[in-house]
Amino acid sequence: MSFFSYLYAVLFYCATVTMVVGVGRKIRIYAKTPAPLKIPTTPAPTTRSGVVGRMIREVVFFESLFKSSKWTWLFGWAFHFGLLLALIRHLRYFTEPVWSWVAFLQSAGVYAGYAMVFGLLGLWGRRLLVDRVRYISAPSDHLMLALILGIAGSGLLMKYIWHTDVVALKTFALGLLWFDWAPLPDDPILLIHLGLVICLMFVFPISKLLHVPGLFFSPTRNQADDPRERRHYPGAA
Prior knowledge:
Blueprint (H helix, E strand, L loop, with lengths): L2 H30 L15 H14 L1 H6 L1 H21 L9 H5 L1 H4 L2 H18 L1 H6 L2 H22 L5 H12 L10 H16 L7 H4 L4 H4 L15
Helix pairs in contact: 1-11, 4-7, 7-9, 9-11
């Protein structure tokens, strides 16, 4: 095995532990943080089942974003939907045999990279061109967009221009999963792609990307609008 094979194997393990522990710690903090007020964003559901429906619409369709800005919703939804398809498509590298539903989505997943790039460019343009958004944008916001755009772009390059040995790559991925290390192809674009993924895994627990689990703990979304029917306690959602 080459030096890069050992290096990337160790980095992937370290990044995985960092991301799992970091996200788990943040979720624990979110869960223990009291909600002192009843502050659901109105119009809000008045029952718990209504809250569940609202959360599903928020997670799947980005309902509140659609109501506030159609262009931002379009770019944001395209990026997140493309990211979901890309993650599903990449499951083929960690399963043998490949699950039937993963194999079924392979053809659709090919276009996920385009959706991601389209959405990311739109979201980045919004931060650069819209005055009020540019004013509140920190350098880390631009770095996160550049990092994810680099991941999507390098993935598309490997798909259509600089091909890599996907059989060897799958062997390497399965080796990581079962602690039976195998050589990693030394293709420059692949190393860049995987290096950016590792960077994203390291910074995920300390970045704004934590809005993914944070959404489920937002009192403006997970509370029912029932202050007259139920007494609110600070420790309850």
